[in-house]
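Loading example: each entry is read as two labelled lines plus one structure line.
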Amino acid sequence: AQTVTQSQPEMSVQEAETVTLSCTYDTSESDYYLFWYKQPPSRQMILVIRQEAYKQQNATENRFSVNFQKAAKSFSLKISDSQLGDAAMYFCAYRSAGTGKLIFGQGTTLQVKP
Amino acid sequence: GAVVSQHPSWVICKSGTSVKIECRSLDFQATTMFWYRQFPKQSLMLMATSNEGSKATYEQGVEKDKFLINHASLTLSTLTVTSAHPEDSSFYICSARRGRGIDEQYFGPGTRLTVT
């Protein structure tokens, strides 16, 4: 079975600084996708960034980028120029290409200090 | 963009009664819908996967007789919590998948269920 682990329950960053959230996963599958989701206090899940496992190039979306290390099964999220609106709970998620089911990590609560 | 709605957003029911939560994909047809449960400050736990016109597939440990899922059309899935008890109080989130591959899942805003 696949598992996703986020070892940082809480993180804090100063506004305009950079922060990296860690995520590791375990799978025996070769075809899968990885995601980072943001859940603000409204609890609406928002897709931040996604990565296909077969792509070596790290995905980037504006201030958000990932460091995908397939051999190490690591998928960290870097947030540059942090903004107050980035404060939320962040979930790393794995999706099997076959079943389509999303498996979430435990989540990391990010606090952004002004 | 793709929009998924849930109704109601918040429901309070008495212990022993049943409550139905609706999940609708408003501007696309969903090949698959998923139901998640989330306790405060915890992760989302997948409860079941439903495909239109077929029986839902439940995750291990989820009581299928307690959490009835019906996927009557390509735009509507319902979750009925039967004979609800206080321990069923939680935040329930649905998501809908439009296609295959990298196509993302679109999440509803969630339903807060409180059983008294």
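Chain A has a mean pLDDT of 95.
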